[in-house]
UniProtKB/TrEMBL annotation, chains A, B:
Domain of life: Bacteria
Family (UniProt): Belongs to the acyl-CoA dehydrogenase family.
Protein name (database record): 3-methylmercaptopropionyl-CoA dehydrogenase
Source species: Lampropedia puyangensis
Gene3D superfamilies assigned to the protein according to its UniProt record, in alphabetical order: Acyl-CoA dehydrogenase/oxidase, N-terminal domain, Butyryl-CoA Dehydrogenase, subunit A, domain 2, Butyryl-CoA Dehydrogenase, subunit A, domain 3
Keyword Membrane: no
Taxon lineage: Bacteria, Pseudomonadati, Pseudomonadota, Betaproteobacteria, Burkholderiales
Top-level enzyme category: oxidoreductase
Molecular functions per Gene Ontology: flavin adenine dinucleotide binding; oxidoreductase activity, acting on the CH-CH group of donors
Length: 596, 596
């Protein structure tokens, strides 16, 4: 099943919801206006449709394989990654001083969505490399930067994030890997890391592992964790590759999905110690790792949108082609294509609305990120930063949770054929299941939302966002027309539910933490749902204005209909979530542990 | 991961919600009281825990395989099926005159739940055989009965249902297989059937295919379909096996889940015609097939509960064992088992509540089935029949839809380990995806609910059930205590939402079919949710009464807590569904087909 990048919808979002022309006013982004965005996206679409997307099924059928420490990726991946690197795609958002293109996240996010739709497994290698780059840019010494950044940004080398150990997943306090300082200033690193995405592969000359470990004598818990660069091959002074480091892949996992992406068990220091280089200062590793994590969390949120989009396109194609049963309204005599049937339409509209809503949220958040980093006014930077930080758990948590729903519907639209692997729809259902888990499970995102993003400021940012939503409601009410009225009405109900829950979280977060955190994931789902609905409401306002100018009728009418559907079918879920959170805090923990 | 049958909860349901002692008053079921139920269930549990459940992972790792028309099942399956047959399990619910044990569905359903939890793939062979038996009992001639029933009921032979063809899935009007009458009274059958579960295998001596086909000159559409018995091996007059029939398995499917269960493509008549015997009368095949389908739909609903239970047990075991992070309430210093964390508890409680709710609905429905068939009073039979028929789409649709949610949560509780196939949790997530599809998709069940079960009688049965629910609310309100009050309150809200939707369906079903059927699946989910919540409310009343007599404190308190959780966390979803159905009928079909 081929993939067609939704360039038009991405540009709509960038232009109207993320205000790309304002992004292009920011220092350093002067060339990054709509024209640039369009040119980049079109090239990105072409490359991914032609080169990367066709490898998606192959990756599932011929996953990466391991033999004697060597990982061989799916046939075609190595060549495709070479093209990816040569096209400059790895450097899209990175600093020009290290060879990047320095484009804003607003454009970069759209490109990432396309890449991930084309091939989730393939896209993980650049995704993790981005994280390694980010950490080095932020905390690496000049020497580390000089040695590694150019080659990571050019795609000559790739990067990994080594956090997890068998006993330490979400709980990094339990990390046991250790690092011993050496007289020459470097360290010897020892330990076992698991679940290391692209921890070993054959697509690049070198792999730069960023590894969490404890220096001897460091404090217990997360305050005693440091971050190290541990390259697969040591790097000579002239930049050429030196000796093989003592970091080896002892196996890769047999997974439910994203099978082409090798998930490595890495063994550090079994032969005397892996040479590592401290990033920043000792015992600040978690802080640096969070830099990588935050970028990666947003990116994983995009993956949720991406896999949903791919699943949707496939479901639409099948629904247009499969003939089965007479429409209930009698509009066709005899059997018709199943897209005529109301429940198939309901499923397709649900998929579409969830995708467009989460996409709008993600791109809007990206623009805030850009302003937070580049705006000349400190207050504007701060406001955008807090907005962005509130959005990250929603982009990560909500977009990935809805990808489970969307891909399940994708299979369901196919009926029995969906269950047959050759059809390809089931791959998305399998692939997406990791998205609610890695880079912090939905619960971890939700705890972040409850604690750092809501409790810490007494709900101030949350309420400020609610106030913005209220303005959109007023504009919709003023606009008239049934869709706008429906969106205004449902948004108001959802916003009130959100405010009730924000109050509840602020009141209970510290006093009654079990009752608050029992509602953390429902709160995340409520907030993500509301914000996506809000952004579709904003989209409706734009579409209505464009229509009145006679623009592109079909596209803008579809945008209005999708917002209308979202409001009537998806936003009301917030009422159920509010009720569960506010009334149900106690019954979650009521059953004694041994009664399960 | 081992499986422990929930015998205690099943007996609770049979005794208190399904009133097994009343079932034992029905003619023919005199020996089928609680003692019998307990004895049968304990034996069933032991057999399935020891023999069938251990083959579940093996079935996933070493699926059935096809070579040159021969299907070899997973090692161990053949021997296990022999034990299954020898234990008399195939005949549990079937007529003693053909060698069955003649037990009520109330007991049979509980045994089926256990078997399906033990091994969904294995259980499909008996499930389809049950369907074939049912059709022959109802519509077969004495000769067909004499030839086939004993051996099907003893498990010496197995049965299949052959409906689907490449162009005819949900839409049986499109069936093209044909049957030519022969001078000797039998028929020659020709055609291709796909998705035939256990259409070929090595577990029994003979396979009795029940095949839909058109006799030459029959009317078009579903009114021209007849049902035929087409045995794999012809049967001699003395009951011994004769010649190989012209029915061959040309391939089996590569599926997302239930991999041990061979899904066959069968080719009938490629070498001159497969010998078939008409079941009942010509052109009434669909009617007979629906007898099989209705039994099978209920059974597939049980499968949803079964796979959910298995996933739940595995998630609980992992949550008790995996140590990760400090509890937010500070109840443990340092990292604790994850069952301490509120969100893990929320996930486990959600799984538990959905399972106990759907189980209560299924067993209650089974008792109605028994009364509908055996009660001496015609009016009682009729009332129970309409109740049962209303329940079938809920048992099938809601139980299987919630199995998607439950098994996804099962993976999620495992975190990253859930995504690794060796853990075993992902198998349930893959296996369950077929349940919302086969034996009629959720949409097909929902159309049945909207049309035949609600529209046809103007919502009379639906409203009668709502009236019963209202009585339960009154009893709960009178009982006092926070859990009972919460359940009464949430039930009342959900019941009102249900009544609104029933009125909407009655008003729109014929006048505005697109708007009605756009809400068909949400209506099914609402009704299924409400009825499960109602049955848990009934369970709460029983548990409270038992507690006041000092019985089994932990068990009954857990029952109350689970009902409480269901009411606060699951029942409120009905409000969102009501809103989507009643307000959203138009926006589902608003987007033009070519705008997708």
């Amino acid at each position: 099943m081929s993939y067609k990048a939704p360039v038009k919808d991405l540009l709509f979002n960038m232009k109207h919801l993320a205000n790309i022309e304002a992004v292009a006013q920011l220092p350093g982004f002067e060339d990054a206006g709509l024209d640039t965005a369009q040119a980049v996206l079109e090239e990105c679409a072409k490359f991914n449709e032609d080169v990367i997307a066709p490898l998606n099924v192959a990756g599932d059928l011929q996953p990466s394989s391991w033999k004697d420490g060597v990982v061989t990726t799916t046939p075609g991946f190595k060549e495709a990654f070479k093209q990816y690197a040569e096209g400059g795609w790895q450097g899209l958002q990175h600093a020009p001083e290290f060879g990047g293109q320095g484009l804003p996240k607003t454009i970069g996010a759209a490109c990432q969505e396309i890449l991930n739709s084309a091939n989730l497994s393939f896209a993980l290698c650049p995704l993790l490399t981005d994280g390694a780059i980010e950490a080095l840019v932020t905390a690496g010494s000049d020497e580390l930067k000089a040695t590694y950044l150019d080659k990571l940004i050019s795609g000559q080398w790739t990067g990994t994030m080594n956090l997890t150990e068998p006993q330490a997943g979400s709980d990094l306090a339990l990390v046991r890997s250790r690092a011993e300082p050496q007289p020459d200033g470097c360290y010897k690193v020892f330990g076992t890391k698991i679940f290391i995405t692209y921890g070993e592969h054959d697509m690049a000359e070198n792999i730069i592992h960023l590894v969490l470990a404890r220096v001897q004598g460091a404090p217990e818990g997360v305050k005693g964790i440091s971050l190290f660069v541990v390259p697969k091959f040591l790097v000579n002074a002239d930049g050429s590759l030196g000796a093989r480091n003592d970091a080896h892949c002892v196996s890769i996992e047999h997974k439910l999905g994203i099978k082409a992406s090798p998930t490595a068990v890495l063994q550090f220091g079994d032969n005397g110690g892996a040479t590592g280089y401290l990033v920043g200062e000792e015992n600040r590793g978690l802080e640096y790792m969070f830099i990588m994590m935050n970028a990666a969390r947003y990116a994983v949120g995009l993956q949720g949108i991406s896999v949903s989009e791919r699943s949707y396109q496939q479901a639409v194609a099948y629904a247009r082609e499969r003939v089965q049963s007479r429409p209930v309204d009698g509009s066709v005599k005899g059997s018709a294509t199943i897209i005529h049937h109301p429940d198939v339409r309901r499923m397709l509209m649900t998929m579409r609305a969830l995708i467009e809503g989460t996409r709008a949220t993600a791109i809007t958040a990206a623009a805030a990120y850009d302003a937070a980093h580049k705006h000349p006014d400190a207050q504007v930077r701060q406001d955008n930063q807090t907005f962005y930080e509130f959005m990250v758990p929603l982009v990560k948590g909500y977009s990935t949770e809805i990808s489970q729903e969307v891909t399940a519907l994708g299979v369901q639209v196919h009926g029995g054929m969906g269950f047959i692997e050759e059809t390809g729809s089931a791959q998305h259902y399998r692939d997406c299941k990791i998205l609610t888990i890695y880079e912090g499970t939905t619960a971890i995102q939700a705890n972040d939302l409850v604690g750092r993003k809501t409790g810490r400021d007494g709900g101030a940012v949350a309420k400020a966002i609610a106030a913005q939503i209220e303005q959109t409601e007023a504009q919709l009410s003023a606009l008239g027309g049934e869709p706008a009225q429906a969106v205004a009405r449902e948004l108001a109900l959802a916003r009130q539910a959100f405010l009730d829950v924000v109050d509840y979280m602020v009141a209970n977060g510290r006093e009654n933490p079990n009752a608050a955190y029992a509602g953390s994931v429902p709160y995340l789902m409520l907030a993500g749902n509301l914000v996506a609905g809000w952004n579709l409401g904003r989209a409706l306002l734009v579409a209505s204005a464009q229509l009145s100018q006679g623009e592109d009728k079909a596209f803008y009418e579809a945008k209005i209909t999708t917002a209308h559907f979202y409001a009537e079918h998806i936003l009301p879920r917030t009422a159920a979530l509010r009720s569960a959170i506010v009334n149900g805090g106690h019954s979650v923990m009521e059953l004694p542990m041994d009664a399960f």
